[in-house]
Design a protein that fits this description.
213 residues; alpha/beta; TIM Barrel; ThiamineP_synth_TenI; thiamine-phosphate diphosphorylase activity; ThiamineP_synth_sf; Aldolase_TIM
């Protein structure tokens, strides 16, 4: 996972499936934007392993390399399909067990506090996913974490923290200033009529004076 630095202005842009868009359609859209994103996450809680495998293969056929694909929760699929890594949730397998058995996988962990972040780092996580930073329709019943909580998390660990939740292009600079190594987006890209235009609006932030220092 790429680590943000002010010197080179590097930050990772992650796109995550939202469980509503058919994986085949999601894969076609990701194929259009593959050169402009760092990682594509398949997060499909209602899909079987077989269906997720088919989704991975469709992504690859559309031009998304396996080195950019991350599988949510399903370690078995990530191993069989030789993807970049796996994203673990609170109900997933233990980080240590996954790292020990499958050292080739990059392992991310979804966290919701600085304490959880520190514990995940101790267990060997390669990176963290933290949010939701801003208000979002997908979590309408929960208050946003905000930038101050993001700062607490990023300052409490040494591994990369990817911020997620309601992040629009204009939020990129403040989120990176808060210490995040990258951002993750879902429906704003996956359900967009023109996903390439949306992705380009995020990538344009790389041209800002602050990020290019």
């Amino acid at each position: 996972m790429k680590k943000f630095t002010k010197l080179c202005g590097t930050w990772s842009l992650n796109v995550i499936s939202n469980g509503r868009l058919p994986l085949e359609e999601f894969a076609v859209k990701m194929g259009r934007i593959a050169p402009y994103v760092d990682y594509v996450h398949i997060r499909e809680k209602k899909c079987t392993a077989k269906e997720i495998v088919a989704g991975v293969r469709k992504l690859v056929s559309e031009g998304v390399p396996r080195s950019k694909i991350i599988i949510n929760d399903r370690v078995d699929v990530a191993v069989v399909e030789k993807t970049y890594g796996v994203q673990l949730a609170h109900h997933s397998l233990d980080i240590r067990a996954v790292k020990h058995s499958f050292p080739q996988l990059k392992v991310g962990k979804s966290v919701h506090s600085a304490e959880e972040a520190q514990e995940a780092e101790k267990q060997g996580a390669d990176y963290l996913l933290y949010g939701h930073i801003y208000e979002t329709a997908s979590k309408a019943d929960l208050p946003a974490k905000g930038l101050e909580n993001l700062k607490c998390v990023t300052s409490s660990v040494t591994i990369p923290v990817i911020a997620i939740g309601g992040i629009k292009p204009e939020h990129v600079v403040p989120v990176i200033q808060a210490g995040a190594s990258g951002i993750a987006v879902m429906s704003s890209v996956g359900e967009a009529a023109d996903p390439l235009s949306v992705i380009q609006s995020y990538r344009e932030m790389e041209g800002s004076e602050w990020l290019s220092k």
